[in-house]
């Protein structure tokens, strides 16, 4: 245990006698108490109480969340927190998911790993999102941290299955390998055979988004010897017969992602599949079900009673099939579906899932304006009547009305996340032809706990006036194809005291709007503006006035030299980044 004296001398702090502190707990007690805080926001707040608490929090912290890999350097992190075992790091801006950020923009994990290899030799867990990860980095990770246990890669790119092979080969105590939605070079399935026969510690294995064939005997042996496996998410190349064998080996699973769900089965094979699902008494999450049909869906009914999360984003279920499935899911809290379920499918959710808290509806054919299936405001309203606990919604649709949204939030006033995506830009209320201002006005007036909001449709500056005035707890706002003038963005920046992220694309906001946030941006995590009316001169002025902000302009060859087509502003204690590519201007 480190003494106060040792810690103060390390940081050049003043003697204890000259410090004021709100408590006199022994170091050991204070560090023990602070170690019980799991929320990083709570821990950060505790570290501000006084110097004793700052140092106690510093030495007891084992996990760090870094929301922007350029907001701080790895050297600063290891100086601030010397005993880290777990790291969560996010890289590229969210709009990289929509191909608005060039592939080689940055966010390389290697400098972080090189620093951590010396400072954190006992690192056990790394979770990365939108980072650039090479095979060499994965091999370095596997060789540098001998006790490494957990790796999660979400929306990362730059690596291949060769990197996964290095992790499987060298991480002898691996507990979790979670690979989701990555830009991965899927070379072969040989990486699965790299797990040593002695490995029995695996609890989470997710390779659902890989595309190559799976060496099934190798996977079967791995599942058989990992008796503590709780999460298994396989890819589309696992058929129903193989899935049945895996379920026999791992009936203890709490989270299952199936492969293709449409193999021709004879009667004994179907009965074996149904029996295997019946033995999965602890299943809480189910996903996959690719190409599922109504006959084989019946096999999963016995395992649905305890389900709290049903992810059907990879299968084009129709309304009748969804209704039959949801009738067996009385405890469902989270539901993700494609819009092929139509309004009738959502009505079934309202009827059978009264405990539902999260609903996400994605478009099956987002770029086809002539689709025969879709969801409308009717389905959304039906869910709101039947699911009063709804807190989180992401809803893609092609039509909506002000009255429908007002009804929805009246039925579900506790929304914390409300993301309505009307896919036709500038779409008004299709019944009255009026702007959708009153819809989002009703959202921010009614939902006082709202933390995240995405707006869409035909919107005037009135929407943003409502947001600035009423959204007191809003942390993230996403805007696309909306607004009439600079005043709209100004309303938001003048209000919304807790705003942390502002994401704007294809809006008429210009220099006056950008510069109206001079006193706001340092308290925010980031601002993204693309395809707006911002100039390079305005960005330079912002950078000059606020040197603690990093102001970056992403340039394309065809861009007007005077315009800032893509602007990314974020606070940083590290100063301008040193790895910016030529197309990124750091102002």
Shape: globular
Count of DSSP strands: 23
Mean pLDDT: 92
Termini gap: 45 Å
- Give the fraction of residues assigned to helices: 25-40%
Strand content: 15-25%
Structural class: alpha/beta
Cα gyration radius (Å): 26 Å
Summarize this structure briefly.
This protein has 587 residues and is an alpha/beta fold.
What does this molecule look like?
With 587 residues, this protein is α/β, with parallel strands linked by helices. Helices cover 32% and strands 17% of the residues. It has 21 helices and 23 strands. The strands form 2 sheets. The protein has a 21-stranded mixed beta sheet, with helices on one face. Strands 5-7 form a two-stranded parallel ribbon. Helix 18 (461-470) runs parallel beside helix 19. The longest helix has 12 residues, at 267-278. Mean pLDDT is 92; it is low at 1-20.
């Amino acid at each position: 245990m480190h003494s106060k004296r040792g810690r103060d001398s390390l940081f050049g702090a003043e003697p204890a006698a000259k410090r004021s502190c709100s408590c006199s707990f022994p170091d050991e007690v204070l560090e023990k108490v602070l170690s019980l805080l799991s929320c990083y926001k709570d821990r950060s707040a505790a570290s501000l109480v006084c110097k004793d608490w700052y140092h106690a929090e510093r030495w007891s912290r084992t996990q760090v969340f870094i929301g922007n890999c350029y907001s701080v350097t790895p050297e600063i992190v290891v100086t601030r927190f010397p005993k880290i075992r777990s790291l969560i790091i996010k890289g590229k801006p969210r709009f990289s998911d929509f191909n608005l950020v060039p592939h080689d923009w940055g966010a390389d994990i290697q400098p972080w790993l090189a620093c951590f290899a010396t400072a954190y030799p006992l690192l056990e867990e790394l979770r990365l999102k939108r980072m650039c990860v090479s095979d060499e980095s994965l091999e370095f990770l596997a060789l540098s941290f001998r006790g490494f246990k957990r790796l999660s890669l979400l929306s990362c790119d730059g690596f291949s299955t060769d990197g996964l092979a290095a992790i499987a080969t060298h991480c002898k105590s691996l507990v979790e390998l979670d690979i989701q939605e990555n830009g991965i070079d899927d070379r072969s399935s040989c990486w699965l055979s790299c797990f040593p026969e002695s490995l029995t510690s695996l609890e989470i294995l997710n390779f659902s988004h890989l595309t190559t064939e799976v060496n099934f005997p190798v996977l079967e042996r791995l599942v058989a010897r990992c008796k503590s496996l709780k999460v298994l998410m396989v890819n589309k190349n696992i058929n129903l017969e193989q899935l049945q064998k895996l379920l026999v080996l791992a009936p203890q699973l709490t989270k299952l992602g199936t492969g293709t769900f449409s193999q021709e089965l004879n009667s004994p094979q179907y009965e074996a599949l149904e029996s295997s699902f019946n033995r999965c008494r602890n299943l809480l999450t189910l996903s996959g079900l690719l190409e599922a049909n109504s006959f084989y869906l019946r096999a999963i009914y016995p395992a649905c009673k305890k389900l709290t999360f049903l992810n059907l984003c990879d299968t084009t279920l129709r309304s009748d099939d969804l209704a039959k499935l949801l009738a067996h899911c009385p405890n469902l809290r989270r539901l993700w579906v494609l819009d092929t379920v139509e309004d009738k499918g959502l009505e079934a959710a309202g009827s059978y899932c009264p405990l539902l808290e999260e609903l996400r509806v994605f478009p099956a054919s987002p770029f086809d304006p002539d689709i025969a299936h879709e969801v409308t405001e009717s389905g959304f309203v039906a869910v709101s009547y039947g699911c009063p606990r709804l807190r989180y919604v992401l809803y893609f649709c092609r039509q909506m009305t002000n009255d429908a949204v007002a009804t929805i939030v009246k039925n579900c006033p506790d929304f914390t996340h409300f993301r309505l995506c009307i896919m036709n830009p500038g779409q008004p209320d299709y019944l009255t032809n009026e702007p959708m201002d009153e819809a989002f006005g009703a959202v921010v007036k009614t939902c006082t706990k709202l933390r995240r909001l995405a707006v869409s449709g035909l919107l005037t500056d009135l929407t943003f006036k409502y947001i600035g005035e009423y959204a007191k707890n809003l942390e993230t706002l996403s805007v696309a194809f909306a607004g009439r003038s600079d005043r709209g963005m100004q309303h938001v920046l003048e209000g919304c005291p807790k705003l942390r992220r502002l994401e704007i694309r294809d809006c008429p906001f210009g220099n006056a709007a950008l510069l109206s946030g001079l006193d706001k941006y340092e308290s925010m995590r980031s601002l993204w503006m693309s395809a707006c009316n911002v100039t390079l001169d305005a960005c330079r002025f912002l950078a000059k006035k606020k040197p603690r902000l990093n102001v970056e302009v992403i340039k394309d060859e065809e861009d007007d030299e005077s315009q800032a087509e893509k602007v990314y502003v974020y606070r940083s204690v590290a100063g301008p980044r040193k790895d910016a590519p030529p197309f990124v201007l750091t102002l």
